Amino acid sequence: MADRRAIGVFDSGLGGLTVVKELAKALPNEDIIYFGDTGRVPYGTRSRDTIRKYAAEDEAFLLSKDVKLIIAACGTVSSVAADTAENLPVPFFEVVTPAAREAVSLTKNGKIGVIGTAATIKSARHEKNIKALMPEAQVTATSCTMFVPLVEEGWHNSEDIIVLETVKRYLSDIVKSGCDTLILGCTHYPVLSDAIQKVVGRDVRLVNAGTATAEAVKEYLNKNGIATDKKDNGVYRFFVSDKPESFRNIASSLLGETVDEDMVEQVSLNDL
Ligand code: DGL
User: Fold this and answer.
1) CB 35 within 8 A of CB 60
2) What ligand 1 atom has the least distance to the C-alpha of 16?
């Protein structure tokens, strides 16, 4: 039986919109309810306990909106707090497993780079997933703490000297490693793809976790007969835990479509 309920997607802030963008391509008729915890971003510099607490609250919020499936569109939550979803009454997807699988399928020289937040890199979750599929792989992992604030600030133009120099500085080990495949292990990072590609060179394949995740969700919905049967374009609603204005502006530019005022609602952190 088709299921017309929305897909729930969450992230600490704007980054999960890079996953929404891929979902829109793969599943254009599905409705999406997005929660961006903009009042508490960033997650990636916090302790595991705090990230787990926030993740559990984000999942509960989406469940209260009666979603049919939840995606943690956040590399940090996927790496250190996926266990908070173990008892959810709906299917749960994270972004590490599909990204690792894609990187392994793409690499030719077995050298894979991973970039993510401090919590993600410390967890070594990508590396474990990669090694499980390809034990001989050489993985070089680096945390890029300044990338999330850059993106949240709307600074992503690859011509911008500050953006480019920041990316260069963080990626020096990745460049030295000779990897031919680089996992963007934080969902904010695809926004910086142009700058990252400039720094690592055109021969390095960038893995955007959103693309592989959207494909995995599509396959799951179809296999289980719970894709929507609506023929119209999906309807999107966004919830944020801080003021909606800046979210709306950056979301519109990220998604390439105007996010109107009535599409974004602020929720109080006390209600989470
Ligand atoms: N988009 C989140 C991630 O994928 C950002 C993390 C943060 O809030 O620091 O890890």
Assistant:
1) no
2) 1
